[in-house]
Amino acid sequence: MINKIKELASEHIDEIIAIRRHIHKHPELSFEEYETSKFIQSKLTEWGIEFENGFVNTGIVAHIRGNNPDSKIIALRADIDALPIQEENDFDFASVNKGVMHACGHDVHSSSLLGVIKILDGLKSEFEGTVKCVFQPAEEILPGGASLMIKEGALENPKPETIYGQHVYPDLPAGKIGMKPGMYMASTDELHVKVIGKGGHGALPHTFVDPVLISAHILVALQQIVSRHARPDIPSVLSFGKVEAKGSTNVIPDEVHMAGTFRTFNEEWRAEAKEKMVKMAETIAESMGGKCEFEARKGYPFLVNDYDATVFAKEAAVEFVGKENVVDLNLRMTGEDFAYYTQMMPGCFYRLGTAHPGTKAAGLHTSKFNVDESSIEIGMGLMAWIALKNLSA
């Protein structure tokens, strides 16, 4: 069966790469993936694949039914949204949508899943059960398309026993696969802070309450939450990426707006840390004559790969690409809304190496991100093999 899958992957790879390039060239932001969804649906229709659409407006669920289709059901997931990044690559399929780019590889995820569908459809007389293929919108922003797909019943009728997802990984060369059972990715909370003071002329500090200075004190003090309060066995990250003070060299604004992220791997500490942040920020602002409005938006849960499902996927990967090409991964402070699926059922989220061998690839979420497209053939073939091996287990 592995040889048949590899043959079909090789047979279809040119078409799938063309699909990937089309999706890459026409990226759409979270909850706005209307043309991407239409394009995926057009391919499924062209290939005669059964599917349902309209989940969270742009989500799609396709079914590949083998013999005795109700005997066992598993799910495969790909995300379809892009990021608000201006692409700086100069190849002919670079983004034509200004300020929007597939900088996280979702074009590879969605095209690879279409490749899996082509492979499985060609083999449906040779396996029993059903493979549910989920094309999910809005992985990149809260509340996350996964949670909404679940609420809208995308994983019901039929309900799968296990779910698998793969994600591009520029830290590994094409041909390599990364796996980690158990705790893998962090929870992701958004922090939105407004510091309110009283603006004025920069030369007359006695006449205003400086929200810029208050914000600086808050930013520095909040780092104590991780450095002085977090348990050493619970990894935590607190980072602020946005500080907006609309003043000038001699103009102090009335307000400063800040935004950041808090990530960790423990629910009790997650809640406790956010309480400490709010109290600390409000107290500092008040002590300096200002006011602080602190909103901690609860984001994705931490992602736990089911041990048995991941060991199973790792064994399948070893069979498909060789033991030397399957590596163990460490904890990641990045987050993924795939975590919502793993709260419903056993699941495994693994990594597909995408770097050109011998080169240092541009990182995820950067304007130069790209992949070695040979990885797509491996990605679609491996996912098809994991699915069929699972159905026959």
Notable characteristics:
Aminopeptidase, Alpha-Beta Plaits, 26% strand, 393 residues, 16 strands, four-stranded antiparallel beta sheet, alpha/beta, 10 helices, elongated, 2 domains
Provide structural commentary:
The protein is α/β, with parallel strands linked by helices and 393 residues long. The protein folds into two domains: 2-185 and 302-392, Aminopeptidase (3-Layer(aba) Sandwich), CATH 3.40.630; 187-300, Alpha-Beta Plaits. It is built from ten helices and 16 strands. The chain has helices at 2-25, 34-46, 106-122, 145-151, 211-222, 224-229, 267-287, 307-321, 338-344, 374-392; strands at residues 50-55, 59-65, 73-79, 130-136, 162-173, 177-179, 182-185, 187-196, 200-201, 237-244, 251-252, 255-264, 291-300, 303-305, 326-328, 347-355. The chain has an eight-stranded mixed β-sheet, sandwiched between helices. The protein has a four-stranded antiparallel β-sheet with strand order 10-12-8-13. A two-stranded antiparallel ribbon has the order 7-14. It is elongated and about 80 Å long. The mean pLDDT is 97.
Largest sheet: 8 strands, mixed
What do we call the CATH topology of the largest domain? Answer: Aminopeptidase
Unreliable stretches (pLDDT < 50, length at least 5) are none
Count of separate structural domains: 2
Distance between the termini: 14 Å
**Mean pLDDT across all residues, rounded?**
97
- Content of β-strand: 25-35%
Number of helices: 10
CATH superfamily of the largest domain: Zn peptidases
Helix and strand content put the structural class at alpha/beta
Helix residue percentage: 25-40%
Strand order of the largest sheet: 1-2-4-3-5-16-6-15
Q: What is the approximate shape?
A: elongated
